[in-house]
Amino acid sequence: MTTTNTTATTTIATTTAAATTDSAITDLTTEIAAAEAARTRLDFAKAAPKVFRAIVGFDAAARQGLDPALVELIQIRASHLNHCAYCLHMHTNDARKAGESEDRLHMVAVWREARHFFTPKEQAALALTEAVTLVADGGVPDAVYAEAAAHFDDQELAHVLALILTINTWNRVALATGKVAGTDERTG
Q1: Is the pTM of this model over 0.85?
Q2: CA–CA distance, 163 with 79 (Å, rounded to integer)
Q3: Contact 95, 73 (CB under 8 A)
Q4: Percentage of the chain with pLDDT > 90?
C-alpha cells in the first residue's frame, strides 16, 4: 500500500512539475511580448538608419579574421560588464548555436577564477575587453595591453579592439533604447 501511494505521489509531482514548467514558459513569453509592446523608446534603426548601418558595417569589419568563438566571448563579457541583458541573451544564444559549451558560457563572468576553461589568448582578450569596457576606471593598463599584444598580431589586435568598441556601442544603444532581452530583432 505504501509503494502504491509513493508511486502515485511521484506521478502527481512529475505531472505538476511539467505543468509548472509549461506555465512558466508561457508566462515568460507573455511577459516578453508585454514588455516589448510597452516600450516607449525610439527605434534606433528606423530613427537613424545611416548611423545604424554604419555600426553594422563597423561590427562586420571588426569580426573579420577573428575566431567566431572569441568574438562571442568578447561580446558576452562586455555585455556582462555593461549589464546589457538584451545583448547578453543574443550573444550567449549565438555562442551556443556556434557550438560553445555551457560550462564555458557560465564561466565567462568569472574567467579569472576559472582560467582553465579558457586559452591564454582568450584570457588576454577577456582582460582587454574588461579594461576597454571599464576604461573610465583606470584606462587600459600597459600590462593588459602587452599581454594582448603578445597573443595577437597587429591586425588581429586592431580587430579585437574594434570588436570591443562595437559591442560597447551596441550595449549602449540597446540600454538607451530599452531593448528587451529575448526579442532578438536581427534579420538573416
Answers
A1: no
A2: 12
A3: yes
A4: 72
Which residue bears the cell 528587451? 180
pLDDT in tens, 149-171: 999 999 999 999 999 999 999 99
Query: Is the Cβ–Cβ distance between 115 and 123 less than 8 Å?
Result: yes
Angle between helices 120-133 and 68-81 (to 10 degrees): 40
**DSSP of the chain:** -HHHHHHHHHHHHHHHHHHHHHHHHHHHHHHHHHHHHH--S--HHHHSHHHHHHHHHHHHHHHTTS-HHHHHHHHHHHHHHTT-HHHHHHHHHHHHHTT--HHHHHHGGGGGGGGGGS-HHHHHHHHHHHHHHTGGGT---HHHHHHHHHHS-HHHHHHHHHHHHHHHHHHHHHHHTT--TT------
Rounded distance between C-alpha atoms, residue 157 and residue 155, angstroms: 5
CA atoms within 13 A on the CB side of 122: 22
Diameter of the chain measured on Cα atoms: 74
